[in-house]
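Our preliminary data section would be incomplete without showing what the modeling component actually yields. Below, a chain of 214 amino acids is followed by its predicted structure, encoded as tokens that our downstream tools consume directly.
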Amino acid sequence: MDEINVPNVVITRLPRYYRYLEELMDEGVERVSSSELSERMGVTASQIRQDLNHFGGFGQQGYGYRVDFLHQEIARILGIDGVNHIILIGAGNLGQSLAKYTNYRKRGFLIEAIFDKDPEKIGKPVQQIRVSDIRDLPGYLKTHDVDIAAITIPKEEAVKVAEVLVKNGVKAIWNFAHTDLKVPPDVSVENVHLSESLMALSFKVKERRKKETE
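Predicted structure:
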């Protein structure tokens, strides 16, 4: 199965499957049908089957899915069955919050270095990681394998940092800056614009209020 050609909308649902399967494992559930998984997730059973069929199906008619096996296979598909080496650019409030989120390590994401330009932050530890000077970033990239770089700095600086990352071989950027980075086709960028998500939620609140007053 060619996983490169899987629709992006399917990929975005896989982490949800992974999370719900993890909950089932914690509850001691060994097998689950697409219908049972559908009730938990709010996704139709046919959609679940279609999504998983992109990767081979994994289930048996009338028998359902073995929870631990499907959980393991989705981890493999997502690339979280091993270790992903992450660096963090920006040791401000958001950067420090990301560094302190313990579930990353559980899922194989290891933050191994943090960089900032603020003299007040350089040299100080964040979750036992000493903050390095951003000027040392190119040298670090030349001597370390980096799978993902997370950017949590202002957009003006983010563009320049992204250029440094790409120039030194980083192929995946987790972008929290308020700008859409322009990178070569072989570099993947996942944009996390928190304000845009909040504005989308605001729209839903507005629409709900409108219906209540009609």
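The chain is about 45% helix and 15% strand. The chain has a mean pLDDT of 91. Preliminary results of this kind motivate Aim 1 of the renewal.
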